[in-house]
C-alpha cells in the first residue's frame, strides 16, 4: 500500500501538521511501510466478530450527579496560555 | 402550482437546562465573564477525562419518551474530530452510530388545519463548543470557552418539511415541547435553542432528492423562515439557469437577508468519528427509563385535546393556549375562578392579554397581570357591572396601573347603568333633542336606530347596558 | 554514607518508620546520586530539589509524630507524563516544554497522600511513543548497564533511574509495553496493572483504551507496596473500575505450589534471541522447582497484536493529541500568519518525528474510506486476541514468556526503521489490547545485559502475579544486581 506525496499532503493537512520538504519522502516511505505491515490484519477472519473498543467487557458508563463543583480559576489556568487579553484566548482572526 | 418542490430537514440543538456541564462540574449559567466557567476538562487540558452528567441523560430520555421514540438500551459516545479554536480538544464528544434516542415523530398543524406527522430520525447527546468573538479585537479573534461542554441534545428530523412555514411550525412545536419538559429554557437570543436547516429543491414529482445546502446556526423563527425562503429561491435560480447546486455549509446573514458560503468550514470535513475510549457505553435499564417516564408532564398535544373537550374550545384556540405551558397554566387559573366562562376567558387571554404582553415584549410569567386579576375583570362583564367595551378600558387601566378591576370601575365611575328608569330618561331627552331624526325614523328610515343608540351611549359615557338600551329604545322609538 | 541505595523500598520504608534514618538524609543521598548520574544517563527531565527537601522535612515530622503513611518519607520519581501541580510536565515534548500543570494526576495525589517524596520527573519517549526513550525532546536516556545502549521505552527514564538506584521506585505508564520492556532491558521489576485498576486522570493520554499507569521497582514486594497506594477507583476517570484494592503486600507470601503456568507458544518464535530463550527456559525451570505446573498454550491470533496496535494506538493518539494547537497551553509558533498557519506550524514544530508519524498514521486509518478497512478491522482482530486470552485463562492461572525478543540494543540502531522498532513490543502488546495485568522480572543476563521474564494474568490478578514474581525473587538474586558504576 504505497502512499503518494499528495496523500501525505492531505493527511498532514487534515492533522494540521506543517511538514518540511525533507519530511515528505520520509513519511511517504514509513507510512507506506506501516500500512503494508498492518495489512496482515486482512488475513484474520472477522466476519461475525464485534469490534472491541474497550478492554474491559461488560462495564457501563457511570453517571455523575448534576452538581457544580468548580470555581473560577481563570487566571491560574491562563498562566499557561500563549496569548490572552480581557480573559479571552487570542488567535489570529478567524474568517467564517 | 410551482414547478419545484422544497425539501427541508432540521437539526435542532437544544441546550439542556442542567446546572453543570455534560462532562465536568463547571457551571452552565449564561452571561458570566469570559472563561470563568471553563475548568480543566472544558479547556481540554492534558490528562483530564470526561465524566457524564446524569441529569443530561435523564433529560434526553425525557425528550425521547415525549416524541414516542425508542430509548436505546445502549448508546455510545463518539469523537467528532475537527480543528476549530472554540473546540478545545480538537474533537467534539457526540453520539454517532448509537444515539440515545432512536426514531420518533411530532405532529404539526398546517395552515389549512391538516395535521402532518414529521418524522424524527434520532436525537443524541453532545457537548457544545465555545464562542469566537471578533468585535473590538483588531486582527485577532478572542475565544471564550464558558459555553464549551454545555450539554446539548441534537434533534434530527427526517426531510419531511416542504416549506419554510412548515419548518417554522415544526421548530415551534419542538420549542414548545422542550419547555414543557423543562429540559431547555428555549431562549433563542442566548442560543439555547437553535437549528441548522438542510435545504434542497427538486422538480415537482421527482423522487430523488436534490443537492442540499446546510444553513448553520439559525437562532430565531424569523431567520429560519427567511433563510429557507432565500435559499430555496437561490437554488431554483441556479437550477433554472442550468447550473448545479453545490453541497456546502452556508451562513445566514440577517442584515442582508441572504445566505452565503462558509468556506472556513468547507476545508476539511472528514470528521473521523470513532467511539470515545474515555467513555463507556451508556446502558439504561427499564427502571431508569420508567423513573424518567414518571416525571413526564401533560404534553402539549394532550393538553390541547383536553382543553378542546373540557372547555369546549376550537382546535385552533386550544392550540394557541397550549403553545406554552405558562400560558396554558394562566388560562386554567382564570378558568378555575370563572368555571362557567371558558370561552370568554380564552378570547380575552388570546386577545387583549396576549396583545398587551406582545406590545411590551413580556412573558406570560412576568406577573404583570396575575390570573386572579383578569378573572376579576371578566367576572364584572358576566355580572353586567360593565360592558365588554368598557371592560377594554378597565383592562388598560389595570395593565398600566396595576389596580383590580373593581377599583378601576369604582374610581372611574365606569359601573354600567342598568336602571331602566334612568335609561328611559336619557332616551326621552335624546328623542326630544332630535325631532327631525325621530320623524324620519318613524317614517320608515330604520337605519337611524343606530344613530339613537349612539346618542344615548354618548350621553351615558358608554355606560348604559347595551342590551337594555336596545330593547327600551326600540320600544320608545316605535311610539 | 550508607548503603541505602542498595536497600529495597520496603526496607527503606521500614527503616524510616523505625527512625533508623531520616527522610531528609535519604532524599539528599538520592538527589546526589541523581546529580552524579545525569550527564551519563539523562534519566531526569526535571529534578524538584527544593520541593523534595521541604517535603522530606514534613515527612520527618510526620514520622516523629507517629502519623506516617505506608510510604512516608520514601523518595520516588514520576514519569514526566503524570501531571504534577506547580511543576513543569513536559511529556518529553517540545510541545509542553513550558507547561506547568495546574493540577496533580490522581496517581501523584495518591502517592503524595501516602507520604512519598517526589525527587523529580523522569525522561521518556515523546508522549510515550517509542520503545527506546530516544524520541524525547530532551535527548535519549542511556542504559545504566551500558551507556551506548537504550534503556527501552517509553518509560526509559524511570527504568534507568530505578536500575541505577537513583530512586527506589518510579511511576511509569504502559500502552504497548512501556513499563515491562524497559524493566526487562534495565534488569528491574515492572508492573503494568489491569486496565482501569490505576486512574488515568492526570496521566497525559497517548492511546486511551490501552494506557495504564504502573510502577518500576527493584523487587516485586516493592511493586506490591507502591501499587497498593496507587490503585483504586477514581470518580474522575470513567474507565476506572470500582473494585476494592486487595492488600498486595499481604498476598505476597501466597504459596506457589500448584500454580498452572501456560507457556505462550507464540512467544517462543523465530524472533526470540536464542540466548534470551535460554534464560527464560531456565527461569521456567525455577518455577517448576517451586511447584508450578507448566503446559504449553497457543493464542493463534496473538501474532497479529502488533498490527492491531499500530492501527488502534495511532488512531486514538491522532485524536488525543489534537488538543495541542497552540491556543490554550503549550508551544505556539512565532508570528503565525493566520489560524491555519498557527495550527500547522505550532504542531509541525512542537511535535517530534515519531509523534507526527503516529498522528498521521492515525489520521489516515480513521479517515473516510479507510475506517472500516483499518480501524474497525483492527478492533475486530483485537476481539479475537481478547478471546484467545480468555480461553487460555480457562485452563491456566498465568501465562509466561519473554518480555522482549532481545536484550538492550544500541542507541540509534533502530531509529531509521519504525517497523523494526515496533517489533520490540511484540510480546508485550497483547496484554494492553486485552487490558490484562502483566509483570516483567529480571531472570538472568546475556552478555552482561539483563533479560526479563514476563508473567501475564487475567483481569485483576495483580496479587497473584506479584506473589508469583516474589516467589521467584526469594530463590534468585537477579533483581539485586546493580549496574557496575552504580553499586
Structure description:
The complex is a heterotrimer of chains A (96), B (479) and C (487). Chain A has helices at 5-14, 23-38, 74-78, and strands at residues 63-64, 84-85, 88-92. Chain A is α+β, with helices and mostly antiparallel strands and 96 residues long. Chain A has a domain at 5-43. In chain A, strand 2 and strand 3 form a beta hairpin. Chain B folds into 3 domains: 4-292, no CATH class; 300-412, no CATH class; 420-477, Arc Repressor Mutant, subunit A, CATH 1.10.10. In chain B, the strands form 4 sheets. Chain B has an 8-stranded mixed sheet with strand order 6-7-10-1-11-12-13-14. Chain C has one domain (4-261, 395-480): Alpha-Beta Complex (Amidase signature (AS) enzymes). The chains are: A alpha+beta (96), B alpha+beta (479), C alpha/beta (487). Chains in contact: A-B, A-C, B-C. Strand 1 (63-64) of chain A pairs parallel with strand 2 of chain B.
SS content category of chain C:
alpha/beta
Shape of chain B: elongated
Mean pLDDT of chain B: 93
Order of helices and strands of chain C: HHEHEHEHEHEEHEHEHHHHEHHEEH
Termini separation of chain B: 62 Å
Instruction: Name the CATH homologous superfamily of chain C.
Output: Amidase signature (AS) domain
The total tally of domains of chain C equals 1
Beta-strand proportion of chain C = 5-15%
Rounded mean pLDDT of chain C is 97
Using only C-alpha atoms, the radius of gyration of chain B works out to 30 Å
**What CATH architecture label of chain C applies?**
Alpha-Beta Complex
Summing up helix and strand content along with how strands pair, one would put the structural category of chain B as: alpha+beta
DSSP summary: helix tally of chain C: 15
> How many structural domains does the protein architecture of chain B include?
3
Number of strands of chain C: 11
> What's the CATH topology label of chain C?
Amidase signature (AS) enzymes
User: What share of residues of chain B is helical?
Assistant: 40-55%
The biggest sheet of chain B, with number of strands, parallel, antiparallel or mixed sense and barrel status, is: 8 strands, mixed
Strands of the widest sheet of chain B, in order across it, are 6-7-10-1-11-12-13-14
- Oligomeric state of the chains? heterotrimer
Quick one: how many beta strands of chain B?
16
Amino acid at each position: 500500500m504505497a502512499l503518494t506525496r499528495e496523500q501525505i499532503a492531505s493527511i498532514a493537512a487534515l492533522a494540521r501538521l506543517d511538514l518540511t520538504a525533507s519530511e515528505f519522502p520520509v513519511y511517504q516511505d514509513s507510512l507506506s511501510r506501516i500500512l503494508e505491515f498492518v495489512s496482515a490484519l486482512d488475513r484474520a477472519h472477522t466476519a461475525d466478530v464485534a469490534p472491541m473498543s474497550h478492554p474491559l467487557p461488560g462495564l457501563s458508563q457511570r453517571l455523575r450527579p448534576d452538581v457544580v463543583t468548580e470555581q473560577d480559576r481563570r487566571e491560574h489556568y491562563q498562566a499557561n496560555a500563549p496569548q490572552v487579553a480581557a480573559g479571552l484566548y487570542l488567535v489570529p482572526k478567524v474568517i467564517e | 402550482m410551482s414547478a419545484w418542490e422544497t425539501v427541508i430537514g432540521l437539526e435542532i440543538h437544544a441546550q439542556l437546562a442542567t446546572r453543570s456541564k455534560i462532562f465536568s462540574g463547571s457551571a452552565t449559567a449564561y452571561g458570566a465573564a469570559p472563561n470563568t466557567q471553563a475548568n480543566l476538562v472544558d479547556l481540554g487540558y492534558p490528562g483530564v477525562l470526561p465524566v457524564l452528567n446524569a441529569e443530561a441523560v435523564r433529560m434526553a430520555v425525557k425528550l425521547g419518551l415525549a416524541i414516542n421514540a425508542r430509548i436505546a438500551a445502549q448508546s455510545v459516545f463518539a469523537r467528532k474530530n475537527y480543528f476549530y479554536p472554540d473546540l478545545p480538544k480538537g474533537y467534539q464528544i457526540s453520539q454517532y452510530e448509537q444515539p440515545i434516542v432512536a426514531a420518533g415523530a411530532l405532529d404539526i398543524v398546517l395552515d389549512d388545519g391538516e395535521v402532518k406527522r414529521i418524522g424524527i430520525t434520532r436525537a443524541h447527546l453532545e457537548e457544545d463548543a465555545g464562542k469566537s468573538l471578533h468585535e473590538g479585537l483588531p486582527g485577532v479573534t478572542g475565544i471564550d470557552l464558558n459555553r464549551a461542554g454545555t450539554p446539548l441534545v441534537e434533534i434530527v428530523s427526517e426531510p419531511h418539511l416542504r416549506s419554510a412555514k412548515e419548518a417554522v411550525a415544526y421548530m415551534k412545536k419542538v420549542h414548545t415541547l422542550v419547555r414543557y419538559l423543562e429540559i431547555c429554557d428555549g431562549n433563542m437570543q442566548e442560543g439555547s435553542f437553535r437549528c441548522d436547516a438542510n435545504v434542497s429543491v427538486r422538480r415537482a414529482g421527482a423522487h430523488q432528492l436534490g443537492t442540499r445546502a446546510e444553513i448553520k446556526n439559525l437562532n430565531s423563527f424569523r431567520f429560519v423562515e427567511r433563510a429557507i425562503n432565500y435559499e430555496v429561491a437561490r437554488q431554483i435560480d441556479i437550477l433554472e439557469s442550468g447550473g448545479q447546486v453545490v453541497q456546502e455549509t452556508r451562513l445566514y446573514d440577517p442584515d442582508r437577508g441572504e445566505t452565503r458560503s462558509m468556506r472556513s468550514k468547507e476545508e476539511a470535513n472528514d470528521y473521523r468519528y470513532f467511539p470515545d475510549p474515555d467513555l463507556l457505553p451508556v446502558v439504561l435499564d427499564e427502571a431508569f427509563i420508567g423513573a424518567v417516564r414518571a416525571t413526564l408532564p401533560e404534553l402539549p398535544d394532550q393538553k390541547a385535546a383536553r382543553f378542546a373537550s373540557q372547555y369546549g374550545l376550537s382546535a385552533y384556540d386550544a392550540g394557541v393556549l397550549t403553545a406554552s405551558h405558562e400560558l396554558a397554566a394562566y388560562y386554567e387559573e382564570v378558568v378555575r375562578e370563572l368555571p362557567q366562562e371558558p370561552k370568554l376567558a380564552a378570547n380575552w387571554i388570546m386577545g387583549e392579554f396576549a396583545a398587551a404582553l406582545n406590545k411590551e415584549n413580556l412573558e406570560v410569567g412576568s406577573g404583570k397581570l396575575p390570573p386572579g386579576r383578569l378573572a376579576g375583570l371578566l367576572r364584572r362583564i358576566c355580572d353586567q357591572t360593565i360592558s365588554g367595551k368598557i371592560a377594554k378600558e378597565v383592562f388598560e387601566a389595570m395593565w398600566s396601573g396595576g389596580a383590580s378591576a373593581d377599583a378601576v370601575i369604582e374610581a372611574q365611575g365606569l359601573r354600567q347603568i342598568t336602571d331602566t328608569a334612568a335609561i328611559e330618561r336619557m332616551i326621552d331627552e335624546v328623542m326630544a333633542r332630535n325631532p327631525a331624526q325621530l320623524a324620519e325614523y318613524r317614517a320608515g328610515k330604520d337605519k337611524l336606530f343606530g344613530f339613537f343608540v349612539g346618542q344615548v351611549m354618548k350621553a351615558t359615557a358608554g355606560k348604559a347596558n347595551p342590551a337594555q338600551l336596545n330593547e327600551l329604545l326600540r320600544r320608545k322609538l316605535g311610539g | 554514607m550508607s548503603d541505602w541505595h542498595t536497600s529495597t523500598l520496603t526496607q527503606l520504608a521500614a527503616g524510616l518508620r523505625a527512625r533508623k534514618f531520616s527522610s531528609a538524609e535519604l532524599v539528599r543521598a538520592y538527589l546526589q546520586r541523581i546529580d552524579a548520574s545525569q550527564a551519563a544517563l539523562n534519566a531526569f527531565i526535571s529534578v524538584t530539589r527544593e520541593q523534595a527537601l521541604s517535603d522530606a522535612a514534613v515527612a520527618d515530622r510526620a514520622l516523629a509524630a507517629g502519623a506516617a503513611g505506608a510510604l512516608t518519607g520514601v523518595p520516588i520519581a514520576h514519569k514526566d507524563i503524570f501531571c504534577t501541580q506547580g511543576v513543569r510536565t513536559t511529556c518529553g515534548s517540545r510541545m509542553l516544554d513550558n507547561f506547568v500543570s495546574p493540577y496533580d494526576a490522581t496517581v501523584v495525589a495518591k502517592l503524595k497522600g501516602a507520604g512519598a517524596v517526589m525527587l523529580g520527573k523522569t525522561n521518556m519517549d515523546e508522549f510515550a511513543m517509542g520503545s527506546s526513550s530516544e524520541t524525547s525532546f530532551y535527548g535519549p536516556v542511556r542504559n545504566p548497564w551500558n551507556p551506548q545502549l537504550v534503556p527501552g521505552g517509553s518509560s526509559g527514564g524511570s527504568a534507568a533511574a530505578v536500575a541505577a538506584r537513583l530512586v527506589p521506585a518510579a511511576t511509569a505508564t504502559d500502552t504497548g509495553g512501556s513499563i515491562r520492556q524497559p524493566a526487562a532491558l534495565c534488569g528491574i521489576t515492572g508492573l503494568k496493572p489491569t486496565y482501569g485498576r490505576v486512574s488515568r486522570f492526570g496521566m497525559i493520554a497517548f492511546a486511551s483504551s490501552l494506557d495504564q499507569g504502573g510502577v518500576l521497582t527493584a523487587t516485586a514486594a516493592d511493586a506490591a507496596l507502591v501499587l497498593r497506594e496507587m490503585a483504586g477507583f477514581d470518580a474522575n476517570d470513567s474507565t476506572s473500575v470500582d473494585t476494592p484494592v486487595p492488600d498486595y503486600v499481604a498476598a505476597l507470601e501466597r504459596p506457589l505450589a500448584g500454580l498452572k503456568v501456560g507457556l505462550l507458544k507464540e512467544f517462543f518464535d523465530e524472533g526470540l534471541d536464542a540466548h534470551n530463550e535460554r534464560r527464560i527456559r531456565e527461569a521456567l525451570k525455577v518455577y517448576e522447582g517451586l511447584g508450578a505446573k507448566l503446559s504449553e498454550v497457543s493464542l493463534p491470533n496473538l501474532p497479529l497484536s502488533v498490527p492491531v496496535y499500530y492501527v488502534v494506538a495511532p488512531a486514538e493518539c491522532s485524536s488525543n493529541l489534537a488538543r495541542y494547537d497552540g491556543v490554550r497551553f503549550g508551544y505556539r509558533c512565532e508570528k503565525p500568519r493566520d489560524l491555519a498557519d498557527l495550527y500547522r506550524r505550532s504542531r509541525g514544530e512542537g511535535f517530534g518525528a515519531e509523534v507526527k508519524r503516529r498522528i498521521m498514521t492515525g489520521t489516515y486509518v480513521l479517515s473516510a474510506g479507510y475506517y472500516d478497512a483499518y480501524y474497525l478491522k483492527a478492533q475486530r482482530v483485537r476481539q479475537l486476541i481478547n478471546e484467545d486470552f480468555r480461553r487460555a485463562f480457562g485452563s491456566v492461572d498465568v501465562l509466561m514468556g519473554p518480555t522482549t525478543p532481545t536484550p538492550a540494543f544500541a542507541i540509534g540502531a533502530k531509529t531509521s526503521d519504525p517497523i523494526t522498532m515496533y517489533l520490540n513490543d511484540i510480546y508485550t502488546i497483547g496484554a494492553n489490547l486485552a487490558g490484562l495485568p502483566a509483570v516483567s522480572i529480571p531472570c538472568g543476563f546475556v552478555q552482561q545485559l539483563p533479560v526479563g521474564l514476563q508473567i501475564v494474568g487475567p483481569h485483576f490478578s495483580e496479587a497473584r502475579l506479584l506473589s508469583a514474581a516474589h516467589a521467584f525473587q526469594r530463590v534468585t538474586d537477579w533483581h539485586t544486581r546493580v549496574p557496575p558504576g552504580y553499586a
